[in-house]
Design a protein that fits this description.
This protein is α/β, with parallel strands linked by helices. The chain has two domains: 97 residues, Urease, subunit C, domain 1; 305 residues, Metal-dependent hydrolases (TIM Barrel). The chain contains 13 helices and 17 strands. Strands 6-7-8-9-10-11-12 form a seven-stranded parallel beta sheet. Helix 5 links the parallel strand 9 and strand 10. The longest helix is centred in the middle third of the chain and has 18 residues. It is globular.
């Protein structure tokens, strides 16, 4: 007797009519027409069952703080940084924990079960570090939460930042972070990349660097990051987040840079919602949108994972823990509207992000933990188009969250009485 049987499911790789069996919290079989009984059976009815969504770049210490101590009136990056500086002294351990837990509730409802969060270490109290370490333990049964020690005010620019970063790592923070473009000089930025990568290599840790989050085409710290990655043997363990200056670089230099990133096996983590709203603020028209060169990176074989970055915090007043919203924006701003490209965008909030975070036990495969999401959509493209309803969110075979299908009552003579947008999926012509 199985614990759970999901019948007639579609999978992101294109398989359809598949039955998914779960026993003891793990996938037991994935094949059509299983002859089996289960304590609980779900009829997917041709809908998409996907591995859980993943956010490889977030700031949980600031999330849901919108309006404290004031609103970001201009909506700019610099006012957001200034506002965070005002908020930090006012933070309490309890408030950070409560806001983070509320966000994790929202994440579960959206099928978002793995998050990498940067946490500011430039506060000598390390208050946010301690708070998110507590949150990591509290949510461990249902969310994989990785923490990045992030010297948000600059490793060298902020007094005590390196000491605090090392203290945070000693407390159990998982990953080494940095922000080289925020240092006082380009030389300091390059030196910070070198020092942070050395710390990671010494401790056997991963690196996730806020890299070149600027419109300045001369901000080329990802070049240093690639060189240090190779020098220290960190290939596959380093992520370059944002990389927005690449949007403004000339094509000749990028033709050199992208192969260097590929050689170092650096994971690229753009954040579409934030990159296109914070960049290009000094432009009139034509106006740059700031997001890095996603199709070109993918074409070079670089792993691209999409992050949300912010949700209702000093930098971004919107957001809802919805990684399909992130993929939807990426499809539009990167002009990834071919069928294959839209599937790549879906991969960028699922399997690519799992690779970037080093999640080895991820995916709908026999023997792996039975973590998955049933969507009210037939395939990944429809999931992105609709930002599809999460009908069921499962962790280790247990249902964590359920949502009823979207149904609108309409009153039009001679027309159906109810409407669900998921029923508008295209039907390919036969023959």
């Amino acid at each position: 007797m199985l614990d759970l049987l999901i019948r007639n499911a579609n999978l992101p790789d294109g398989r359809s009519g598949v039955d998914i069996a779960v026993s003891d919290g793990r996938f037991d079989a994935i094949e059509p027409g299983l002859d089996a009984q289960a304590r609980k059976t779900i009829d997917a009815d041709g809908r998409l069952v996907t591995p859980p969504f993943i956010d490889p770049h977030f700031h949980m210490d600031a999330t849901l703080s919108l309006g404290q101590p004031r609103l970001n009136r201009s909506g700019t990056l610099l006012e957001g940084i200034a506002l965070w500086g005002e908020l930090k002294p006012l933070l309490t351990h309890e408030a950070v924990v409560e806001r983070a837990l509320r966000y994790c509730d929202l994440a579960v409802a959206r099928g978002l079960l793995s998050i990498r969060s940067h946490v500011d270490v430039c506060d000598d109290r390390l208050l946010a570090v301690d708070a998110l370490l507590e949150v990591r333990e509290k949510v461990k049964p249902y969310i994989d939460l990785q923490l990045v020690a992030f010297p948000q005010d600059g490793l060298f620019r902020s007094p005590g930042a390196e000491r605090n970063l090392l203290r945070a790592l000693d407390k159990g923070v998982d990953i080494v972070g940095g922000i080289p473009h925020f240092e006082r000089t380009m030389q300091d930025g390059a030196a910070s990349v070198q020092r942070l990568c050395e710390i990671a290599a010494e401790r056997g840790l991963r690196v996730d660097m806020h890299c070149d989050e600027t419109d300045d085409p001369a901000s080329r710290h990802v070049e240093t990051l690639a060189a240090e990655t190779v020098r220290l043997g960190l290939e596959g363990r380093v992520a370059g987040s944002h990389l927005t200056s690449m949007h403004s670089m000339d094509n000749y230099y990028v033709s050199k840079l992208i192969p260097l990133i590929a050689e170092a096996r650096i994971h690229a983590i753009p954040n579409p919602l934030i990159n296109i709203t914070l960049q290009g603020r000094h432009d009139t028209y034509p106006k740059r949108r700031g997001m890095t060169r996603v199709p070109e990176l993918l074409s070079a074989g670089i792993n691209v994972a999409l992050g949300q970055d912010c949700c209702m915090d000093p930098w971004y007043s919107l957001g809802s823990a919805d990684m399909l919203d992130v993929a939807h924006m990426a499809v539009h701003v990167a002009q990834m509207t071919s069928i294959d490209a839209m599937k790549q965008a879906f991969d960028a909030v699922t399997v690519n992000s799992a690779l970037a975070m080093g999640l080895d036990d991820y995916g709908i495969e026999k023997g792996r933990p039975a973590n998955c999401v049933l969507l009210d959509a037939r395939d990944p493209v429809e999931a992105i188009r609709l930002r599809a309803t999460r009908l069921a969110v499962m962790r280790n075979g247990e249902i964590l969250a359920q949502t009823e299908p979207c149904a609108t009552r309409i009153n039009l003579d001679g027309r159906p009485s109810t409407l669900n947008p998921a029923d508008y999926a295209p039907v390919e012509a036969s023959g």
